[in-house]
Each structure stands twice: as structure tokens, then as C-alpha cells.
Amino acid sequence: MTTARRRLHPLPPPAAATGPRPVDDDGGPEVAKRRPEVDGEGLEREAEVLRALAGGPVVELVGCTTAHGEVELRTRRAGSATLADVDRLPLRTVLRASAAACRGVVAVHRAGWGHGALQPDHVVVGGRGRATLCSLGRAQPLVAAPELVAVDRAAAVALLLDTADRLEDSEDRARRQGAGTMRAALGDGTADLLDVAETIEAGLADAGARPATRLRPALVAVLLLLLTATVAGAWTSRSGGRPSPGLQAPRTAPTTSLLRSPSGPLRAGADGDQSVVVDLDCDGDDELLLLRPATGELFVAPRLPTDGRDVRTVPAGTVPGAAGLTTSSTPGGCTTAVATMADGTTVPVDV
After folding, report:
1. CB within 10 Å: which end of the chain, N or C, has fewer?
2. pTM for the complete prediction?
3. Cβ neighbours of residue 212 under 8 Å, at least 6 residues apart?
4. Helix ranges, the chain (H)
5. Closest C-alpha among 240, 215, 235, 206 to residue 315
């Protein structure tokens, strides 16, 4: 694998030079905000907030430096879209990200902070509907500004209503149904945000979810990554057998990968594990999907191991009897996963 990431749906250039912009033109692993030093106090303060919330549902701080009369805040890229991009994101991604945004706001509050400026383009959407909060320059500790709990909650409700409106404007029946799911979850606007998130997630099956091979969602991904050393997987592919027409052979990679856990480094992976690089949500972000043929278990790594950091995976369901993985391209140019069964037949993988 190379360090370059596929960009199927590149974002348009930022509207203002002072806003977030990529460090390189290839959608590299970092994003930067830059301001003149005389106006850079806000970026320095945002860096302090990100340090305080490290490990939470916020963008990961890389560094904040001052040089040549300019302050630069660098964060780890969390995705290629935001909830402002509802019209170009798949329905399931929108619903998952909306639910994850609700959980993220609650998590920030439980950490003792208020966001203070929540809006659609401040929710970064990554692979499989991950939602990461950004633009925390106006965040404050709740001990100093307890009113931000109500402010953030009202902003989250407004964000979801706006998302539902945009889904409802679609000519696609499934997207309109998804809008109904979100409105039902919100009710009269007084529901707890965690309850709203659960209702949206429960409605995924009725809101345009693909019928093939339904799998268990990884609902505890964050805790799993923090508290356990879940299988990261051995990346091998079997050389025997030719892929079916229209399918591509899985990519090969090192047979083991190293994970860090609270108890120290652990070597994960098993002989015979296979993986493919796919774009599960057709959002331009690649993920690694791993199959353990011995058990039929599937695991997903939400990012590619291209930057020297540890790779961790979360369970994504099972495909009983699957012997291998291949990939297939959709008419829109996205790469999806296909399980090869022992009898040579193939089954679309839906996680």
C-alpha cells in the first residue's frame, strides 16, 4: 500500500483562507488552520481545548506552532466530508453520522466542556459514518459556562432538523424515509440526545439499508479501541483460485501488525486472515476489511496503516462459510467487498 489515499469525492476548496485547509493537495493525513500571529490567540486556545479533550470525539491535535508571523494549528484528518455534505453522502452514512454526532456532544459534556459553536460543517464524517467534532475555538469548561449544555443541545437538534429537511428534499424514496426516521427520533425536540441516537440507529434497517448479508454493527468501537486489543489482523491473501469476472484479487500486505494496549504491545492476527481495501460508504475514505476464514468473523480498521501509527480493528459481523475476500467496483466507482464462499459463489458484504 502506498501512503496516498484515494479521493473519490474531493471536497471543494475552502471558502476562506483562514479556515481549515489540507496540508497537501492529495488529501493528506493532516489538516491545518493558519492565521496571522496577531490574530492567532483563538487557534492557540483551540489547541488547548483539543489537548484537554484528547481521546474524545474531537479531532486529534497534531500541534500548534508559531513561525514567520503565522500561527498554525494542525489536526489529524478525520474524514473527507462533514454533515454539511448531506446531499452527496449515502443515506446510511448520514444517519450513522447524525447519531454519532449526538453521542459526541454528550461525550464532550461528560468531559466537562461545551462546544459552543456546533453546526453541520463542524461535524467531520469519516468512514462508516464516524462523526468527529471540530472547530472548538469557542469551547468552554462547563464550570464556567454551564449554559453551553442547553446551547449545544439546541444546536444539535437544529442540525438534525436541517439534515432531515435536506433528506426530505430528495427524490429518492429511501432518503425521504430516512428523514422521517430522524424526525421520529427527535419527536417534540425534548428527547435526550442519547435516546435520539439510539432511535436513529434502530431505524437504519428501514431507511435504505441494503438487504444482502446483514451483519452486526460495531456499536462499541471507541471503548473497544481504548480498553481491549482487538484483532488487528493478518493481511494475507490466498493465491489459489481465480476471482470471478468483474472482481479484483485482494491486496496483500504484511502478515502481522502490532497493537498497543494498556498492558503493552500485543501481536495480533492469525494465519489465513485476509483483507481488502474498500470504501464502505462511497465517501472517498478507504477502510481495511479483514476476514478470518476459520470463524467467518469480519473486522474493520477505520483507517489505513499508512502513517506509521498502530492499526486497530473492531468486530463488524460474520459471514459463515466465507473462504476469502475480493472486491468489486460499483457503477459510481466505489470499491465494495465481496465474500468468496467455499463452493466458489460470491456474496456481497454489508457491514
Report:
1. N
2. 0.59
3. 347, 348, 349, 350
4. 41-52, 91-110, 148-168, 173-186, 193-202, 221-227
5. 215
